[in-house]
Amino acid sequence: MEQLTGIPELDDVLFRLMSIQSRDEHDEVMEQLFKIAPNYVEPLHELYDLGTYQNMSLIWCLIGQTSEQAMALFSKAIKDKDQYTRWAAAKALSEFRTRDASSLLVAALKDRSHLVKLTAVDAMSKFRDPQAVPQLEKICQSKHLRKNAPGIVSSAKKALKVCRRAR
What we know:
This protein is an all-alpha fold. It has helices at 8-18, 23-36, 41-50, 55-60, 68-77, 83-93, 99-108, 114-127, 133-141, 143-148, 150-165. The protein is built from 11 helices and no strands. The radius of gyration is 17 Å and the shape is elongated.
């Protein structure tokens, strides 16, 4: 069997994830990955850097992890070219209560993906970061978003109130 990380337990789950045949099987394998991933943040980070695996899955399985290693991986992933990887990173970063995570999410308010943008907007209601105010105002004023993504605008208005009070 080919190796991804050189860790048999992890490689087995990752290879199974690549060859799933059904939604139920996907859920089962992801559950296994969630259980073991916290033990292997560094190898998963290395695999992410190689770019030879599904980056979204690598990030998603680490949501809830708050170690420095996980933060470093999420910091990279929030800038990934794939919108679903950026979305998973935004979800993961919203679990952190640090200035660095907040800064990365403020930057994600400018993301071109509505999924990423909405996740960052929702996080700002929790983070209450005054640095988010200018971008939240832009979101609220965007004709394009009001027409095509009114949920983002509605959430941005709520987050804007919270962030303005934090000033």
